[in-house]
Amino acid sequence: MQSKNHRVSVALVALLAGLSLSLSAFSLQAREPSTSTMIERVVPTIVSTHRADGATAWIGISQCRALAANNAFVTFRFDTRIDTRAEGSDGFSHFQKAVYYSLARGTTATVECTTDDACVEIPEADITQTEASITASVRFRTLTGIVGEAGCEDAALDHEYFVRIYVRPDIVTGVWQQAEGRVILDTVRPEPPSDVIATATPNTIRLEWTLSPSEDVTRHVAVVSTTPIGAGQFPDADSTNLQPRVVTRLGEGVGQVDVSLEAGTEVYVAMAAQDETGNYSALTTPAVTDVAAVIDFWDYYNEQGGQETGGCAVQPASPSSVGHALWLLAAALLIVRRTRRSINA
Amino acid sequence: MPQTFSTRLASVLFVFVATALCSSQAFAQSDKHGVFEFRLGGYYPAIDNEFGDGAGPFETFFGTSSLWMGELEVDFYLLQGFGTLGLGMHAGYASTTGSVRNRDAIDEALPDTTTFRVIPLRASAVYRYDYSALNHGIPLVPVFKAGLDYYLWSIEGADGETAISNGNNASGGRAGWHASLGLHFLLDVVDPSSAAAFDLNWGINHSYLFVEYMMTRIDGFGSTGFDLSDDQWMFGLAFEF
Description:
The complex is a heterodimer of chains A (about 350) and B (about 240).
Chain A: H1 2-15, E1 39-46, E2 51-53, E3 56-59, H2 61-70, E4 73-80, E5 95-104, E6 120-121, E7 127-129, E8 133-139, H3 140-144, H4 149-155, E9 158-167, E10 177-186, E11 194-200, E12 204-210, E13 217-225, E14 245-246, E15 248-251, E16 254-258, E17 266-275, E18 287-290, E19 294-295, H5 297-303, H6 322-344
Parallel strand pairs in A: 3-10
Antiparallel strand pairs in A: 1-4, 2-3, 4-8, 5-6, 5-9, 7-8, 9-10, 11-12, 12-16, 13-14, 13-17, 15-16, 17-18
Helix pairs in contact in A: 2-4
Chain B: H1 3-22, E1 34-43, H2 57-62, E2 67-81, E3 83-102, E4 105-128, H3 131-135, E5 140-156, E6 164-165, E7 168-169, E8 171-186, H4 192-202, E9 206-217, E10 230-240
Antiparallel strand pairs in B: 1-2, 1-10, 2-3, 3-4, 4-5, 5-8, 6-7, 8-9, 9-10
């Protein structure tokens, strides 16, 4: 991730001139969105996200494209515990303003939005107050500085964008509290894995590989084809019909995917890494292997001359066997029990 | 199993059965009806015996480690007196999974798996010599069992379904017999008051920790096919109700 952070730092100056950024500190621990006792929950409402959890939404390259193309809004709804529209005769107000700002990914710096110009105030026209919520919206292009679809990948951003509102519960304390929603935008593709080795059966392809060096990789995928695959393609590119299959990890650099192939077929398998915002790396150089013909225990037992044929028949070998004696003993015991029951009755 | 051993075991069993029958009126305990047992032990079927020396098919696919076999047993007393004589029903389960192999190189393990499962069902005549444990304070109860078995078995192939070879489904059953000798340790002596409370609240008269040596011959009484026999050590708990 450090290489990604470095590239991001360089790109920031040119691409986010409209936003003053706080780049004072990098840390592995990102800063969580601020919370307020007045805000029950924060709900991101964004037409395209890779995933959302609480006040945070993750956006990768494909979602970025969709948002940039449509110039969509990034909206956060802050559900309030009181009606923030209420206003006292002395001019007291529960709600002050909404702002947005951005930080490089992993930054823990505190942004005060007071004297500095790190924050940009959201116009009142893009803020909606109801009895139970405050909604603040910012255009994706405005928030990120990304204009067109192509800009998503070209920008190589790895940033966190915060939308913050200021609220206060009463005039007595008078202290403004902050509540935030966050968008994590990552348009930097992870590095691909390498050294892929594939072993194929008609039902499964077992894979061994060297892990991607990128730190934010959450899973690996494989593309499987019976026709050659070009290395360096992206699995999510529109120009390919390669469907990425999630690799079930069996261990560090070991996993498998389910397939349905004929034995003897030549198969091409390439892998890619996927990060936490859903971005795929480029495909590795494909491994080429033949689908092996498998033999299971039952086949092998029969091929070796085993006499078992299945079924549930009971076939005593001879009337004098120990088994027959025991069958008789069991029958005798049942008779004894029935006899005793009769006597007791 | 050697015939001489079977004969001896049958003789011993007969003596104990006869003894129990003769003294059944001496110590009638109306509140005891039987025993519930659960046990665990190792199991390794003798399937490869069919193939002589060397690694047979079972060892090739599943190795040489024993399978874990779990088993439940319920015995109902037929006679009580100088020990108890009863009829027991058992059901158990054991399975093992191994990699399928490359047909062209049998030593090469491939990603898919094949699974062997067995469900042993047994009916036993059970004699428990608990007279000394209950009357003389010796907390050990020898238990003899012998009976008939039926083992249901199945094999799962690489596709996760029941394997098929030469048109034969890999599932079936094998009959046989078993005999066992166990030694049960009466746990009541460890904490008599808890044992009494257990009886009062749950109707469990006595609890036992036991070890049992069980000899099974599951070969369809000598017919061709799977030999699922084994000599097993089993360990478990028993509750007399």
